[in-house]
Amino acid sequence: xxxxxxxDLLNPDDVLVVNHTRxxxxxxxxxxxxGGRIEVLLLERRxxxxxxxxxxxxxxxxxxxxxSAPDRTPLVRVHSRSTAGDTFIVQLLDSDAxxxxxxxxxxxxxxxxxxDTERYQTVYSHDAKSAAAxxxxxxxxxxxxxxxxxxGVTVCEVELVVGLDTFKPIQxxxxxxxxxxxxxxxxxxxxxxxCREAHRRGGRVVAVGTTATRALESVGTTGISSGRTTLFxxxxxxxxxxxxxxxxxxxxxxxxxxxxxAFVGPRWRRLYNTAIAERYRFLSFGDAMLLDRQA
Length: 295
Hints:
CATH superfamily of the largest domain: QueA-like
Distance between the termini: 24 Å
CATH architecture of the largest domain: 3-Layer(aba) Sandwich
Number of domains: 2
Number of helices: 8
């Protein structure tokens, strides 16, 4: 089957929920006063022109240091390390720096530049805020979404700003000791009501991607429809809203594979064994699977 066949797997009483966040051209190649070149990856806006950022080779950066574009235009002032210690708080000295100097923050395993940067945006994306794409949504075209709606399926949006937690590996011996980073999310009342109505009719809430899933379950767990979530979904989690999930194949030692294991139970190993045997593609621009939640 192909993702386009998802139309045949959905029912008129179902709700399909997508994460509408758009990717910022957040990778900035900058130069220090010493001439050394480093990379700043903007993760999430904290305030006016202030961002949480990853800085490669930034261990010896000085607080207040200014980093410039290759043409020596001042772009970034380093404020301090974040509380967690693995990111920096930085200030953009040019509000348009991402658009003028930035590039798409493609994962490091994608080594060829995109000639069309829209390939790393979902067709329904708006509000550029994220440091990575909600990649399960990259499988959809406007034509496919039209076919889904024509079947009677309601398509709703949520927002989860994709940040560090989406791609930071688990490094603790016990995965449950992993400290998950918070991410900003918002779930409109209309989306929540559509999910409730689907359940009342016997339909399913089908989340496109782990980010849409995390946003919905954050509301289901806390009752708060927007804010920051630290929800860490691991096996044993009691699901509140999501009944089915379309997701790509993830790497070991990630919070995402723990979420999949929590969603489908022990059969996740069988699914991944099949994917490996059939040489499915993992990660961004890879293959996808539609999962029904274990009873």
